[in-house]
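User: My instructor asked us to take a sequence, write out its structure as tokens, and then describe one feature of it. I'm not sure where to start. Here is the sequence I was given:
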Amino acid sequence: MSIKRFLIRLHWLLSSQFGIDPQRFLRSLRGIPRFISDWWSFRKGQVSPLVWMPCLHDRYAEGGTTKSEYFWQDLLVARCIHAAAPSKHVDIGSRVDGFVAHVASFREIEVFDVRPVTTHIPGVAFTQADMMNAASIAPLIAGGGYCDSLSCLHALEHFGLGRYGDPIDPNGYKKGLSNMAKLLKPGGTLYLSTPIGQERVEFNANWVFDPRTIIATAQEWGLTLRGLTVVSPEKGPQEAAIDQPTLQVLAGQPYNLGIFTFTKAN
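Assistant: Let's start with the prediction itself. The structure tokens for your sequence are:
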């Protein structure tokens, strides 16, 4: 593992699991002298009560997070759904405070997740379901499919690893993808995003898939790939050619986000 990858992983572990963000800590230290100077200048002309509530690091951050792969997947897929205007769109496990909110701003959306959502959200219908368990969706697919549009963004890679209270199952992603295909009506579209690169399990956070693994698994269930967008930390989103040389290169890289667009055969 390179030093850069080690530091990125260490930062993720400290910030997301223990609430310690070294970068924010250093920015906050940098902000202390400016805070004291600004406070001193402001209080000279202020007669109302003045209470300290330091915000030390915001001055040195960008005006919003636009480099994140979550930002790009949520925006791009929501735009695809808006343009396609499907009759019924269902989401599996994507971020409620990101992608789901984007879609709910212009249409109804139904969400399935293994964890509960107790907040009532306008435009969002929620069902608690384990997508690795075919019995969860059996009543919905009795008529040959449930929806003509389906999304699962940055979620499939967690199936079967126990991170979100789901059962441990090394084949969890395969079961999940097969059940998603069953939910789709013939001719329907699946928008699926997962980490791609050198295939491995980073237990119990997520899988990183060889993109050919996802494509082959989807094909087993009648899903045909018709588009692949790759979001890289350096270049942002770019459309990728769907050919073996390109897929082989992606499979050899450490990490990217792949946004796959599949269509279910008629």
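For the description part of your assignment, you could build on this observation: The radius of gyration is 22 Å. Try explaining in your own words what that tells you about the chain.
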